[in-house]
Amino acid sequence: MSVAAHTDASQGSFQTAQVVAHILDAVNRAAFVDEPFWHLEMTEVFPAELYRRMRAAMPEASEYRALKGRYNGNIQADGSSTRIKIDLFPEYIRHLPPEKRAVWDLVGSALQAPELKEAFMRRLAPGLERRFGADFMKTDLYPVPMLTRDVTGYKIRPHTDTRWKGITVQFYLPEDESVSHIGTRFDRQKPDGSFEMVHRMPFSPNTGYAFAVGTDTWHSVDKLGPEVRSRDSILHTYFVDETVQHKLMNRGKRVGNFLKNEFRHAARLR
């Protein structure tokens, strides 16, 4: 049996199909909220035992690489980054210890399942149809699951996400409810150009949200205070993959990030 299909057999195993089915159920029963824009709010996204293993398999900070953000907005004066990441593709996680690699390979494989993409597209139909038209289900999207960690000082102002993205999904991975106040804000732009928070997602274990990227999908994160040890989540983005330019960019970015990851790993071993 492949690493992608199970976790350590001594701890019991999960088939990829089982995990996909569980996430599909979470998507299909998710609450559909239309304020301030159409989005899904999910609970019990991953099987409870797998979620426990995900928490236990969290990589060390040194195993991530910096996610600089727009205009290097996440980079601190000392050169450190308030957001770090690991793409959940086999070539990125191959340097993790075997027990951690098995867990994240399983999760990454499940999140790339075509049936999961189709479920998100069906449930987010209003936003996707508005952007791509009546045949939105035929739109090609390229899934990129990414494990992220935010630390004290991280923030992001209200934004709608780049047009290169079709669907934005985030799964929250906290240990408990102790920092539930640091969830993503869903904002509305007022006539004067300022923003008001309409709703905040609680940063609760094994929950998440999803929305079709549009011109009104304003969201943000307040600056994380010193009480935040880490804000762990999976950012799962479906990039538009319609044209030759899209396909070259999406795959080229994956190759480029792989090379950066290999250089970083080699430097650590010197």
Automatic annotation (TrEMBL):
<protein>
    <recommendedName>
        <fullName>2-oxoglutarate-Fe(II)-dependent oxygenase superfamily protein</fullName>
    </recommendedName>
</protein>
